[in-house]
């Protein structure tokens, strides 16, 4: 049996123009594309006529057995000799479960490539005029999965609170109150700036800025929801000065 090949491709954070050149090439030659909820449908127009499109979107908190179905599709179509693209929002290896999918393919001896993508933790702040590092504000950045399901005790809130680095939370909207509470409880100044960026890099992008003490009330008032990125740190102070895309759109 001639095995096909799987390309685990990062589609970027939302703006279809942020796909990489190689990522687009993979889409163009695919026999099967298995794509996520947050992937821009414009990217699917690059596919050849007759390409099989399989939607595997996961709603927040409703993942169920979808990941098992994805694994099954990857193996099934690759074993039929097809070129398969697993098209994932952002970057496959940044909270994208791309590592799990690669492990599954390796277990079946199926060849694969990882095609990195622009991750929302960098792109969302950039589109809001917030550099995640800056010589005068932050010498580093920490990325955290904010959904916290079963993981709350694993986060070193004391270390996060003491660090001067920028902190970027993915998938944290449902727990934003808990996040702000824990950072303050472990020593982070309540006046630390916080930004929340909703639907980043799309024409629906919105950004609000507050502090650890005020941001929860602000996002509730403005009715922010997922998908959104939460940025904590002094770099947020640059938003008003450097914001550009929301003025453009």
TrEMBL record:
EC number: 2.1.1.107
Lineage: superkingdom: Bacteria
Top-level enzyme category: transferase
InterPro entries, per database record: 4pyrrol_Mease, 4pyrrol_Methylase_sf, 4pyrrole_Mease_sub1, 4pyrrole_Mease_sub2, CobA/CysG_C, Siro_Cobalamin_biosynth, Uropor_MeTrfase_CS
S-adenosyl-L-methionine in keyword set: yes
Keywords linked to the UniProt accession: Methyltransferase, Porphyrin biosynthesis, S-adenosyl-L-methionine, Transferase
A Pfam family matched in the record: TP_methylase
The UniProt record lists the keyword S-adenosyl-L-methionine: yes
GO molecular function: uroporphyrin-III C-methyltransferase activity
GO biological process per UniProt: methylation; siroheme biosynthetic process
Domain Tetrapyrrole methylase: 5-215
Family classification: Belongs to the precorrin methyltransferase family.
The name this protein goes by in its record: Uroporphyrinogen-III C-methyltransferase
Organismal lineage: Bacteria, Bacillati, Bacillota, Bacilli, Bacillales
Gene for this chain: cobA
């Amino acid at each position: 049996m001639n095995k096909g090949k799987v390309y685990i491709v990062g589609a970027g954070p939302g703006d279809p123009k942020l796909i990489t050149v190689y990522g687009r090439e993979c889409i163009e030659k695919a026999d099967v594309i298995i794509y996520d909820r947050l992937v821009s449908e414009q990217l699917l127009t690059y596919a050849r006529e007759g390409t099989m499109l399989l939607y595997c979107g996961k709603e927040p908190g409703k993942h169920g057995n979808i990941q098992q179905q994805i694994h099954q599709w990857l193996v099934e179509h690759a074993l039929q000799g097809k070129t398969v693209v697993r098209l994932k929002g952002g970057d496959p290896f940044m909270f994208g479960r791309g590592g799990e999918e690669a492990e599954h393919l390796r277990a079946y001896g199926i060849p694969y490539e990882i095609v990195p993508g622009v991750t929302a933790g960098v792109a969302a702040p950039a589109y809001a005029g917030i550099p995640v590092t800056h010589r005068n504000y932050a010498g580093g950045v920490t990325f955290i999965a904010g959904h916290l399901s079963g993981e709350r005790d694993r986060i070193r809130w004391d270390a996060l609170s003491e660090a001067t680095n920028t902190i970027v939370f993915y998938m944290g909207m449902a727990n934003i109150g808990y996040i702000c509470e824990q950072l303050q409880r472990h020593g982070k100044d309540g006046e630390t700036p916080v930004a929340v960026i909703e639907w980043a890099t799309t024409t629906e992008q919105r950004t609000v800025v507050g502090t650890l003490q005020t941001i929860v009330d602000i996002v509730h008032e403005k009715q922010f929801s997922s998908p959104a990125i939460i940025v904590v740190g002094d770099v947020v102070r640059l938003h008003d000065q450097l914001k550009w895309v929301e003025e453009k759109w």
